[in-house]
Specification:
single chain, 436 residues, alpha/beta, Protocatechuate 4,5-dioxygenase, Chain A, Protocatechuate 4,5-dioxygenase, Chain B, 2 domains, eight-stranded mixed β-sheet, two-stranded antiparallel sheet, 20 helices, 40% helix
Length: 436
């Protein structure tokens, strides 16, 4: 099932969606650079040289040199960004708008004074609309979720790996718990990992506190968390799948922040190291999904669980034959601040693992207060696991999940380590009555 993009049929209109944004990312960022007097002066002194300093396609550069706003829009430009370019050249907004409609600034101004352009004759053609809404044949192939991985993302685990301490008596039991997992990943390597994590004041400080952030860029570098970046590769993402997921989730009323640029910290890199080991390049693409669990209010378990269910619909409506794993990271019980620092609750953690498998719907209703009281102030990270669990097919009866691995250990630095692998088995759909 493809996503509804009927808005593309509105005549004379370019709707700036995630696809347009990806296509015009550097073009629009170029326009943003003109918000300082120094850059405007440099651009006007030598337009071509300034444009050549940006990673723009030749078609984008030529559109600007030709003062062709329609061509710039076709190349991914957005009018609010392009307006900054026009202002640099001394164009009024009515002059820019007029140029896109084939009339002069004076003619455009007169048209607006007369009440503006009529909507009559500027709507979607009914025949085209009916054809667009005809029941399409289902895609022959589509993306599928093959499994979910749940794991703690303790920064000290990454440090132990980076400094060759994995065989030390303190750390060896932790890494033994992931030996099966690495072998399983080699046999079940996905094309894409959708990795749910939380940033730890690395990419986002208190100037911007988004609740859900979907990484829609092509690649994301490893963050410097104060000790220098971990000696691990950055991630290569899948911006086309990410744009598709963004479209689907936002249409399902999940308010996302979309990030084309950000760094990713240990919340994302430690799980990758645990599952894939010491590699020069991660063996699959990774789409980062940040959840705010640092400053209250944080999203509820129920909201995360519902997002996971919508995520499955989004992924499985993508018409490319990709194998996708959804990873939920963070936790388990730990508290890093105050007189209760060091709190661990083995019984609660293991009950959480039990319910995650057997009663995820009931688990999604656990209130924030219970997480904080029983699992520690930073144990609230466990709500992120519910996104991955919500993406499994057993919830609507279309498949089953199989527990492939479960591991629990205390301690890893200040934290209890929990780990679970669920394989997703979707049953083949029965043919419709009368269809053989």
């Amino acid at each position: 099932m493809s996503l509804d993009k009927t808005y593309k049929l509105v005549p004379g209109t370019t709707v700036f969606d995630a696809e347009q944004s990806a296509r015009g990312y550097h073009l629009n960022q170029f326009c943003m650079s003109l918000m300082t007097a120094e850059n405007r002066e440099r651009y006007l002194a030598d337009e071509r040289a300034y444009l050549d300093a940006w990673p723009l396609r030749e078609e984008q550069k030529q559109a600007l040199l030709d003062r062709d706003l329609n061509a710039a829009m076709a190349e991914g430009g957005n009018i609010y960004f392009l307006a900054k370019w026009g202002a640099t050249l001394g164009f009024s907004f009515q002059q820019m708008a007029g140029s896109m409609t084939g009339i002069t600034e004076e003619e455009y101004r007169a048209m607006m004074a007369g009440g503006g352009r009529s909507v009559e004759g500027n709507r979607i053609d009914h025949a085209v609309l009916e054809a667009a809404h005809a029941d399409p044949a289902p895609p022959a192939e589509h993306a599928v979720i093959t499994g979910a991985v749940f794991t703690s993302h303790v920064p000290a685990i990454g440090a132990a790996m980076d400094h060759a301490k994995t065989e030390e008596p303190y750390w060896r039991p932790v890494f033994e718990g992931y030996e099966f997992s690495r072998a399983w990943e080699e046999e079940n390597l996905p094309d894409v990992v959708f990795l749910v994590y939380n940033d730890h004041a690395s990419a986002f400080d208190l100037s911007l506190i988004p609740t859900f952030v979907l990484g829609t860029g092509a690649a994301f570098a490893t963050a410097d968390e104060g000790y220098g970046p971990r000696p691990v590769p950055g991630i290569e993402s899948d911006p086309e799948l990410a744009a598709h997921i963004a479209h689907s989730l936002i249409r399902d009323d999940f308010d996302l922040t979309l990030a084309n640029e950000m760094t990713v910290d240990h919340g994302l890199t430690v799980p990758l190291s645990l599952m894939f080991g010491d590699v020069g390049k991660w063996p699959c693409k990774v789409i980062p999904f940040h959840v705010n669990v640092v400053q209250y209010p944080v999203p509820s378990g129920a909201r995360c669980f519902a997002l996971g269910r919508a995520l499955r619909k989004a992924i499985e409506s993508y018409d490319r034959p990709l194998k996708v794993q959804v990873w939920g990271t963070g936790g388990m019980s730990h508290q890093l601040q105050g007189p209760r620092a060091g709190l661990i609750n083995r019984a609660w953690d293991n009950a959480f693992l039990d319910r995650l498998v057997e009663d995820p719907v009931g688990l999604s209703r656990v209130p924030h207060l219970e997480y904080v009281e029983e699992a520690g102030s930073e144990g609230i990270e466990l709500v992120m696991w519910l996104i991955a669990r919500g993406a499994m097919s057993d919830l609507d009866g279309s498949g089953d999940v199989e527990v492939k691995h479960r591991f629990y250990h205390v301690p890893a630095s200040n934290t209890a380590v929990g780990h679970l692998i669920l394989e997703n088995h979707t049953r083949a759909q029965e043919p419709a009555e009368g269809v053989k």
